[in-house]
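Intended use. Records such as the SusD/RagB family nutrient-binding outer membrane lipoprotein entry shown here are meant for training and evaluating sequence-to-structure methods. They are not intended to support clinical decisions.
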Amino acid sequence: MQKSIYQKSLLPLAIGALAFLASCSDSHFEEINKDPNRPGNTTTTTILLSAEKQLIDNIRNENSSLRGTQLFAQYYSQNIYSDQSRYDIPRSYSDTYWSNAYKALNNLNEIIILNSDPAKKDVAAAGVAGTNANQIAIARILKAYAFQGLTDVFGNVPYQSYGNPDPEFQALQQTPENLSPAYASQQKIYQDILNELKAAGDTLIKYKAANTFGNYDVIYKGKNELWAKFANSLRLRIATRIRTKLPAESNAHFEDALAKGVFTSNADNAVFKYQALAPNEAPLFRATVTANRKDFAVSHVLINVLKGELGTVKVQDPRLPVYATKNAAGEYVGQPYGLPVAAAGLLTATDVSLPGAAVNAANYGEVLQEYAEVSFLISEYKNWDQQAYINGVTASLQKWGVAPADITTYVAALPKADKANVLNQKYLSLYTQGDEAWSEIRRTGYPTFLVKSGDVVWRRTANGQTTDYKFQPLFGEGVPLRLYYPPKEQSVNLANYQNAVKAQGNDDITTLLWWNK
């Protein structure tokens, strides 16, 4: 019988992840050299290390990020090949994202299983791993993060909860019958992950002085207090996403999360930092430098906004030299977004601005969530609060290393907080976080300066003749609203796939998700 990706399969832990910190001098890393294919030798610390890397590798990989969400958010633009810029999305991208997400989820669920099994829980809590309850809490947070990513991409998906026995929430249940799990509705998934984050955060607040997983935890080095803040900060994001659908529930979680503690500075940011050495470099570096690819440049939309030529801020943004490089002529020039194939290669990589050195570093720290976003969420919740808006802009500038004097000058030039100005700045701060930027564009419709169907994206004069190139999507009329379900689901889980499509709408990129309807 074919084994489902949802079913426990004793998946070999990612070898790249096991080698990820091999050069570290900490003696605790000796365990990662043990055979990962032998269940008795697999520690929860090693599983966490692998799962974190699997999770971040997946959401920021070349197909789902560089060719997907970073293009949907119009941070980047393609030259030579421009089909994905115009929303011709290969269904294989969905297959890869889906499969790798559930592999990470299975590893996270294995941590919960080992810490819940009476015969194994004492061994699971040995060494630097920490108590069973705290390990389970951190695994629940990362599972909530992964499932939110999945449902924001596809809508209804197979889901698994730790604390809720709902029959629709058993995707990772370890039974032979679970080869083809039902899809849970996005509404139920959102409601449950809010409760999962609340419960996990409450556990970690109770034991906030403790350390769980130690240095095997790349994100927070095992600091319970920071994991609790992350859980509550994620609740702000998720509660905001569903406010128009479930306002009372949204507000209750938002208030509770604020009361219990969210990010208050960049020191709290949830970041997975890669290494400068192969094979553990950051995804963008691997896609561009390692593969020597230069067919993705910073879009003309983002460059023009940062130069103060587009949008509501009329001075140059000090993040410009960080986000992008100058072209061969010493200028910042964005690649026109979404050109037809016949025009896409007319500008070469030396004519336009490529991603900045800090952004494209091998040891870049990929952000799961940061203080700037939290500040913008609070500003929105408080009816576009001015101080929270300033806090968000300042935090973003500080994170990217902008000099204090330049921060003061830029902040002084900001227009007053309102819906457009706050969301425009939030968009600029989410650069490199294409998954979240794409979701916010779908939720809010901002920023309004993004390219739309029929807009002229490049006016080129050659041989005395001027040509206007317009943006024309190949599918749909605007930014994709979701991605296709993986083709494999139609062969291994057809009945549940069909039920999901019937409940949600056609399996294409123009179907609105529940929170977006």
